[in-house]
Amino acid sequence: MADLTNVQQVVQDIYDIKIQGATNIAKSAFQILIDELKRQTFPTDASVLEFLFPAMEMLQNARPTEPMMFNGMAYIKGMVADQTSNTTTIKDIALQAAQQYLDMISSTATLAIEHGSHLLEYGNSVLTHCHSSSAIKTIIANRRDGKEIFVYNTETRPLYQGRKTSMDFLKAGMKVTMIVDSSAGFILDKNDPFGIDIDAVIIGCDAIKLNGDIINKVGSYSICRSAYEEKIPVYIAGNLLKVDAKDSIQIETRNQKEVREDAPEGLEIINFAFDQVPAKYITGIVTEFGIIKPEAVKTLVNKKYPWMK
After folding, report:
1. How far is C-alpha 9 from the chain's CA centre?
2. Distance CA 261, CA 217 (A)
3. What's residue 85's pLDDT?
4. Which residues contact 146 (CB under 8 A, 6 or more apart)?
5. For strand 234-237 and strand 150-154, is the pairing parallel, antiparallel, or unpaired?
6. In whole angstroms, what is the distance from residue 81 CA to residue 65 CA?
7. CA-to-CA distance for 71 and 242, rounded, in angstroms?
8. Tens of pLDDT, residues 46-91
9. Dihedral pair phi/psi, residue 126, rounded to 5°
10. pLDDT tens-digit series, residues 223-263
11. Which of its termini does the chain have fewer beta carbons within 10 Å around, N or C?
12. Are strands 214-217 and 207-208 parallel, antiparallel or unpaired?
């Protein structure tokens, strides 16, 4: 019988937000598949599949808004289904496919960060939301040549992922100020009496729709809409491996106890984990192929990643 114990632990860590950020979630999912395929003994090809398919399903169910992970699972399944050599085992094929996709995640992320490293000018202030390794690394990359960048980051309720974001910027030696989520629109206002002048919004994303909309941590919609109204550019630190090619990603809601553990009887709480930002609010999506307009997503995916269809 397949041993799914270690996979289940990663699943729980993803659900509990101990592993956070679309890229980190995908990396952890494929790394555990690689580790377990290497660790366990599979006497037959059938026994490999008895482990592989349930493990992939468990990981996908841990977070229903992560197409970077879903696309990679589809990539592995496609490689396994296309087996043509009797001398290559299913285990070897699955291992190779998982490693290839894991390498693809890293290489495309590096390219995207490089493309986004010239978005900001010396002395610019940037607003970011939630915890996105892609957005954080992109903003930090803009410090090249001694540029001073000022960061404002939201606390990101109800689980406060923004605290991790602020620590990442502090460790990088950057000037960072945390704000409560509900004040984001106010500091984006050009008439803000406190004189906070935001030059750009850079956030990550969990999913990119083929029409150029993006799905990200709840609160992203109001931030991007406010920036749009104030004519402040909005950049999405993305990666086209995050494209929802099958238009299957739905907005996730989570346990209401995350918002209020002692909620009185009769009080209903909707705990949206994500929201959807319309393409019209987005200035550009920072990808491995450069900074693209949202309307270019579908054409570029069809050209560069035809296997996603």
Report:
1. 20
2. 21
3. 56
4. none
5. unpaired
6. 25
7. 8
8. 899 999 999 999 999 998 888 999 999 999 998 988 765 555 689 9
9. -130, 140
10. 999 999 999 999 999 999 999 998 988 899 999 999 999 99
11. N
12. antiparallel
Phi first, then psi, for residue 154 (nearest 5°) are: -80, 155
AA letter at 120: L
Structure tokens of 292?
């693209």
Interval 79-135: pLDDT, tens? 988 765 555 689 999 999 999 999 999 999 999 999 999 999 999 999 999 999 999
Q: What is the pTM of this model?
A: 0.91
Tokens of residue 220, six digits: 């992203």
d(CA 56, CA 11): 10
Active site residue 145: no
**Pairs from 71-78 (Cβ < 8 Å, separation ≥ 24):** 71/241, 71/242, 71/243, 71/245, 71/305, 71/308, 72/26, 72/29, 72/30, 72/98, 72/101, 72/102, 72/105, 72/241, 74/307, 74/308, 75/100, 75/101, 75/307, 76/33, 76/52, 76/101, 78/307
Residue 261, classed as helix, strand or coil, is: coil
287 CB neighbour count, 10 Å cutoff:
27
The fraction of the chain above a pLDDT of 70, given in percent, is 98
User: Has residue 38 got a pLDDT over 80?
Assistant: yes
| From 181, 206, 213, 244, the catalytic residue | 206
Tens-place pLDDT, residues 253-267: 999 999 999 999 999
Alpha carbon distances (Å) from 108 to 50, 76, 113, 246, 249: 31, 18, 9, 21, 22
Q: Cα 222 to the chain's mean position, in Å?
A: 19
237, 290, 288, 233 alpha-carbon torsion, rounded to 10°: 0
Q: What are the structure tokens assigned to 270, written together? A: 């909707």
